[in-house]
Amino acid sequence: MRIGYYPGCSLEGSSKEYNDSLFAVAEKCNVKLEEIKDWSCCGASAAHNLDHDLAIALPARTLALAEKQGLTEIVVPCAACYSRISSSKLEISSNVATLQKIEKYIDLKLSVDVKILTVFEFLQKYIFPVVDEHIVNKLNQKAACYYGCLYSRPKELATLEQIENPMEMDDVMAKAGATPIDWAFKTECCGAGLSVSRTDIVAKLSGKILEDAADRGAESIVVACPMCHMNLDMRRPEIKKQLKKDINIPVLFITQALGLSMGISADKLGLNKHYVPTEQVVNCMVKLEA
Length: 290
Known about the structure:
By secondary structure, the chain is of the alpha/beta class. It folds into two domains: 3-117, Glutathione S-transferase Yfyf (Class Pi), Chain A, domain 2 (Up-down Bundle); 134-287, Rossmann fold (3-Layer(aba) Sandwich). 44% of the residues lie in helices and 11% in strands. The protein is built from twelve helices and ten strands. Helix 3 packs across helix 4 (79-93). The longest helix is centred in the first third of the chain and has 17 residues, at 52-68. The model has no long low-confidence stretch (mean pLDDT 93).
């Protein structure tokens, strides 16, 4: 089975540990990911504010390249990339005139048959069937599973079974031996792309998320979005100023948490690259008896 892979810009830069941990988990389970050749930026949060056709064409080009490569499924771990590519596919699929116009822009043929998988769908479909035989550690901690905005909005693109109270990431953490907490901020916005232009707004929104997780006894926050990770992890000084108190809960990518339970080293998973130290999560692990 050939499973296509679209890393997007973040997973090759600021969130490389997400990329590395996804590949480490896949390798452990003998699942091969094939990167789409010559992929380009999805447009993220900027393109659709500037040029509607460009916002469709950028992700459409990636879909066309995946088709040309003979891929029928692609996993898109970044929430923003998933949103933009899925949105482009939906618009092209529902409008023949748009499809023809975009094909001219990108100079590639499009059938829009490629299935796009979120990281949750990928884990459930390809990792879950074999993961039990690879789990050697129990993540003995309470975890707040934070989904953010883009996996649940808009509803036309959402693949979560329960949009208001998603459980897909909770299921992964339960597999890893953690205890997912019940909390109120699973799908609240962290401030997203305002991280640079309006850091004050990010500090306020992300601060509420961190505070609620801490109040409910969470020992880690688990995410599946590079921007969410950046805001909750890197913006901790601004959040501390906003809250007027320090919250030291570490933030992990879902693949890092699962990788720890599978015995993959913290360094290979990129846990040494975070702003908030992750040692307390590593030290919480309990070795399972053979």
